[in-house]
Design a protein that fits this description.
4-stranded antiparallel sheet; 243 residues; elongated; N-terminal domain of MutM-like DNA repair proteins; alpha+beta
Length: 243
């Protein structure tokens, strides 16, 4: 599943189409394609893992889920969920969820929850996290209403950087540690963004999908954790369990 930094990269890549007219929209998504024909794209936005194509009076939201992808200029050999055709270019989106939003996005999304956004509010995130006292940190970090854009890669790497065990209980984690985790969510997201653009993201994984630490060969534990049973990677001795 693409995490927030990958969606910001898409927003950058596709920005050259801003203010262009869509000659035709096609695909099998359950939206009115005719309503997109001959419409000018006013902007591209992102919120966490959500990508927005903004027109004057509505927005098309794309969520890539587990297997979604996109292609600029030339199509793949499979049918796109939605494709936008321009006078001299095309863009294709595959295996994704497509939804039309008629309300202003400010009425639908809390921009202060977007970890990579200009309005990201770490103090608000801390308040929300602390209100979920009995929950495990591995679940809370994947809550998009608090950490929009954080996925399993960021979760694991942030907890390793913060030296906190993924099964730690929120109300048992010292506040300074919670602040460290929240800060690292943004810091690591921008590291992820830079490494992904340079095609070297996986080279920098410390624990995610690793069997041992590169620095000293210490074993990386792989375990299903939390209510959602998502896979966590961690160092048993180095990451403190707060329970």
């Amino acid at each position: 599943m693409p995490e927030g930094p990958s969606i910001v990269i898409l927003k950058e890549k596709i920005s050259y189409l801003k203010h262009k007219i869509v000659l035709e929209a096609s695909g099998y998504a359950d939206v009115d394609m005719d309503a997109i024909h001959h419409k000018k794209i006013m902007n591209f936005k992102s919120w966490g893992k959500h990508f927005f194509i903004c027109f004057n009076d509505f927005t098309i939201r794309i969520h890539f889920g587990l297997f979604g992808s996109y292609q600029l200029h030339k199509p793949k050999k499979v049918n796109p969920k939605i494709a936008l055709h321009f006078n001299d270019d095309d863009v294709y989106f595959y295996v994704c969820t497509v939804r039309r939003i008629d309300q202003p996005l400010d009425e639908v999304y809390d921009w202060e929850a977007d970890v990579m956004g200009d309005q990201w509010n770490p103090s608000k995130a801390l308040q929300k996290v602390k209100s979920l006292g009995p929950k495990k940190i591995c679940d809370v970090l994947l809550d998009q209403n608090i950490f929009a854009g954080v996925g399993n890669i960021i979760k694991n790497e942030v907890l390793y950087r913060s030296r906190v065990h993924p099964e730690s209980i929120i109300e048992k984690i010292p506040e300074e540690k919670l602040k460290k985790i929240i800060k690292e969510c943004r810091v690591y997201s921008f590291d992820f963004f830079r490494w992904k653009k340079d095609n070297e993201l996986s080279k920098h994984f410390e624990v995610y999908e690793q069997k041992e630490l590169k620095s000293n060969g210490e074993e990386v534990v792989r375990k299903e954790t939390g209510a959602t049973k998502r896979i966590s990677y961690f160092i048993e001795k180095a990451q403190k369990l707060y329970v």
